[in-house]
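Annex B.
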Amino acid sequence: MPDLGAERVDKVKKLEDYVINIPDFPKPGIIFRDITSILRDPEGLKLSVHELMHCLEGTEFDVVVGAESRGFLFGMPLAYNKSKGFVPVRKKGKLPRETVSKEYALEYGTAEIEIHKEDIRPGQRIVFVDDLLATGGTAKAAIDLIEELGGVVVKVLFVMELEGLHGRDVLKGYDVESVITYPGK
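Adenine phosphoribosyltransferase: predicted structure tokens.
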């Protein structure tokens, strides 16, 4: 984690206090980090958006892209506050116009996401947002779609990161920032 300064460290710690840790979910040995508790509290929601906005300081971009579904929740206020457009990346079969899609590996099986073909224009500078960086599979698949359409990913933002799953390795070469980081899985 970069040097944040004492005031930001306090804000990040306060935001981390909103996260509810659920042991042994979805299976024994896993600690599930539930961020819905950030969303339900007005102060937690405001603080999370504020910290993500801070991560965008100095970043020139055209569009925010968010992954279904919590990437929508955090990406939309960023786009709104920066007067930028928002483009959703959705699960296969949810978008009505012509799309491009990408299949990617999950822990047990595969998933597929898609984006409207016309929503990313060549040369657009993109900020990708999601709630969690774990293995990096969803983010990398979304970035691949953006780049396939000619977009340039200038920043990749997450509210939370599980460092023990090495998602940053999958996103090597991109400017990745997470507000909260946990050393384990």
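Residues 42-55 form the longest helix (14 residues). The mean pLDDT is 93. Further annotation is deferred to the next reporting cycle.
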